Amino acid sequence: MRTTMFTLSSLGGASTVTGSKHLLTNNGKRILIDCGLFQGLKNLRDLNWAPLSVKPSSIDAVVLTHAHLDHSGYLPKLVRDGFRGKIFATEATRDVAELILKDSGYLQEKDAEYANRKGFSKHKPALPLYGVRDAERALERFSAVPFGKVVKLPGGASLLFRHAGHILGAATVDIEWGGKRIVFSGDLGRYGDPVMHDPEPVPGADYVVIESTYGDRTHEPSDPTELLGSVVERTVRRGGTVVIPAFAVGRAQSLLYHLWKLRSAGRLSKVPIYLDSPMAISATDLLHAHRDDHRLSPEECDAICGIATYTRDVEDSKEISASSYPKVVISASGMATGGRVLHHLKAFAPDQKNTILFSGYQAAGTRGRAMLQGAREIKIHGQWIPVLAELADLPALSAHADSNELMRWLSELRHAPARTFIVHGESDAAEALRVRIGRDLGWDATVPRQDQVFDL
Fold first, then answer.
1. CA distances (Å), origin 194, targets 164, 224, 245
2. Per-residue DSSP letters for 325-363?
């Protein structure tokens, strides 16, 4: 990659909603904002195995907007391949990343072991991208930064975190370097979310890098608690189980909140609720540890955390799959790409009395997207599983800002940036947001290509 005075390039998250990695280079110093795994389509997942376009050892620091796997999940490989700098993140992001990265390493080791044992991998032997020890080495490089405090980065840059909503610890990243200010939205949350704070306004920037997950659509204004209750109640009436693939951090806790609201209103009183994800259970405990990062009172935290039966043990998880009693099962992963939810899908998807409920974004190439697009079979652990269960999609439960909310956050800047870069969205969504920014705000907006270099 060529080096000029001050440049920006996206090593991931360009015209795709996964693998976010945005590189600032200034006088030979490099700062990487986010370091995510590619997920979904095979051609994207294959990029996780390909060398980066810059040597990891040449990167001086990493700054994380938040801990979701598509923003942090490549860190263990980056460290294993030679990165030796610090990883700057909020305190809650550091705690959440410990859960996510160790879990990712563990699952990759287990998936490789399972593939080798069952013989369904094309690779002989199947290998994990990284393991638990690699995740632990990455965690040793973290440096926690409070919200609202300016800290120095290598090369004379400075960093400021502001609340982004979305999940615990999520932040927008404000970097001042060489007299220029570059702001990264990370993943923005919803305004008026009952659990997370609103995205904090940014007063100004010379350049803005904004996500576009929902850049081409708006969320329906319906009450998500009521929508969730209707799905569960009609499924239970026909004797079925509701399986909810959920991101262990953020979505699982939001679902527990809405289920608690339903219980408080006298609904679902006899419906068992299971949180079947050790990582989601641990993430729910973090609500107590980081009270300033969300809206919930200590009493609400206790009530929400107490509404579900937690299952850490594998045998207990198997009993849930084996039971035909009507219930709600919340289990990771959120796009049905791995984790215990796959075993629940194998058990419940073939029966039309059950419901598979999606409550968040489903990336292209994932089982979740395939089911929502009408797939009547999905491949799990080398087997084709029929999908006869009802499929429900409740985007109103999403933790991602929609197009209107992204525009609201941008419009709070006091002056137009020199350029706005639109990332972390599929091509149609990113292009729709680019057009809208130009039309409504009159700003110069660009959708970067992978590894395209921009002079700042």
1. 14, 11, 21
2. S--EEEES-TTSSSSTHHHHHHHHTT-TTSEEEE-S---
Whether 428 shows a pLDDT value over 70: the answer reads: yes
pLDDT band of 445, cuts 50, 70, 90: very high
Q: Do the strands 61-63 and 29-33 form a parallel or antiparallel pair, or are they unpaired?
A: parallel
Q: How far apart are CA 269 and CA 450, in angstroms?
A: 50
Query: Strands 180-184, 171-177: parallel, antiparallel or unpaired by DSSP?
Result: antiparallel
SS3 of residue 444 by DSSP: coil
Residue whose C-alpha is closest to residue 324's, from 286, 359, 350: 350
Q: Number of C-alpha atoms within 13 angstroms, CB side, residue 37? A: 23
Residue extents of the structural domains in the chain: 6-217+399-455, 224-397
Roughly how many angstroms between the first and final C-alpha of the chain, as a whole number?
A: 16
- The answer to whether 407 and 373 have CB atoms below 8 angstroms apart is no
Answer with the residue of higher pLDDT: 306 or 236.
236
329 forms beta bridges with 243, 274
| CATH number for the segment(s) 224-397 | 3.40.50.10890
Class of domain 6-217+399-455: alpha beta
The C-alpha atoms of residue 311 and residue 232 are separated, in whole angstroms, by 20
- Local confidence band at 1 (pLDDT 50, 70, 90 cut-offs): very low
What six digits make up the tokens of 374? 């009408």
